[in-house]
Amino acid sequence: MKDFTTGNETKLILQFTLPMLLGNVFQQLYNVVDSIIVGKVLGKEALASVGASFPIIFTLIALLIGIGSGFSIVISQFYGAKDIGRVKRAIDTMYLFLFGAGILVSVLGMYFSEDLFLLLQLPKELIPQATTYLNVYMAGMVLFFGFNGTTSILRGLGDSKTPLYFLILSSLFNIAFDLLFVMVFKWGIAGAAWATVLAQGGAFVSGILYLNKNHKIMKFSLWKLGFDKQLFLKSLKIGLPSGLQHTFVALGMMALLGIVNTFGTDVIAAYTAAGRIDSLAMMPAMNFSQAVAAFVGQNLGANKIDRVRKGFKVTFLMSNAFCLLMTGIIIIFGSQFMKLFTSDLNVIAIGEKYLIIVSSFYLLFATMFTTNGVLRGAGDTLIPMFITLFSLWIIRIPSAYLLSSKMGETGIWWSIPIGWSMGMLFSYLYYRTGKWKSKSVV
Asked: Over 80: is that where the pLDDT of 227 sits?
């Protein structure tokens, strides 16, 4: 566990971010490896089917992920205030909430899977494979929430190294199962989904066994978990705006997918592959945002406002430096990265254009996420929610619809940085007001 309330801000945030970044890169390998093996072994139709599933998965879990972030903030602030008793009660309450929610999401996802694909105008030839993949993935939601909840709790406690080990273990499981189920057992697209489910489950169980033996605060026992209504409501108050934000973002991604789907299998496959590369490239900005949120949470809990301002400044500089590097790599090697997923020349060309357009504006994304990390760490999640919804639903989606009608799928790609620019501008202006400082729960 790391105490952010003393010491050099740059060193603390960088040391916390790097293990988390490495861990999340391994976590993203779930999607990347699935897509590479599916695209190369099963073809572009299967690749498009996998890609069509993820906005639906994100929509089904988005609200709960946001509420879970509220628990993480509460845990971070109580840990900064050295109130270990309430830290432990918040952890128990979070687990009970996530397990119950995981069961509900599994049932809903499997029941409505085919209807959702029809609603999104997915080409009919892709629906059987997409439905198979989604149903298997939904079956493992309890394991997904347990695994991600554990890593989120540890990060709230300032521990980014232990989640790294779990994520590496999970990624290695996933790669091994992918090769076994898809290439050896010939289970098709279902094999790729089962690989992810079993990898998450194996890492979750392994992690719990390790933590029960070695961690001072994290002691997990399903039969001894206690629910604290007061802490649940406090976490819900903070996390619900983020949950609603995540949900409307996810719905926005589904709306964008609905536009992408009208351009056919090649564009869907290119969007899937380029999106996997894009997600990896944006990881540094996202992880710096998580780091500064934990940093701000502890320092507001300790009433050290000056360290919060310094933390924002150094995180802004480091995050943007990483994004400049990612932009250069993507522009130079974008075509080669696309070839990892498919040999179809048209799919490669479409994906390369996506990557060049979107990666050129990573600085906007990094600035937006760093600012929002400060606001989330302070427990101020309502205004960022409205800013995100405005930039997505009022700016990005209408831009995608209008530009794609004139420019084809390229118009959809241009709508992404247009949305980022508005989100960055309004987030930074709100940060400058300083109103977020009064939102601390401690």
From this structure: yes
**390 burial class (0-12, 13-18, 19+ CB within 10 angstroms)?**
middle
Neighbours of 110 (CB within 10 A): 17
- Residue owning tokens 């509900």: 104
The closest alpha carbon to 368, from 282, 298, 247, belongs to 282
The pTM of this model reads: 0.84
pLDDT for 405-423, tens place per residue? 999 999 999 999 999 999 9
DSSP 56: H
Token pair for 117:
């694909």
Q: Where are the alpha helices (DSSP H) in 179-264?
A: 189-214, 229-261
Direct distance between the N- and C-terminal alpha carbons of the chain, in angstroms, rounded to an integer: 20
Going by pLDDT thresholds of 50, 70 and 90, the confidence category of residue 22 is: confident
CA 398/CA 385 separation, integer angstroms: 19
Cα(211)–Cα(221) distance, integer angstroms = 11
Give the containing element (helix H, strand E) for 320. helix 305-339
C-alpha distances in Å from residue 139, one per residue of 22, 133, 134, 277, 312: 27, 10, 9, 26, 40
SS3 340: coil
- Cβ neighbours for 217, distance < 8 A, ≥ 6 positions apart: 1, 84, 87, 88, 91, 157
The number of angstroms, rounded, from the C-alpha of 135 to the middle of its chain's C-alpha atoms is 20
Q: Cα–Cα distance between 352 and 278 in angstroms, integer? A: 11
Helix (H, G, I), strand (E, B) or coil at 75: helix
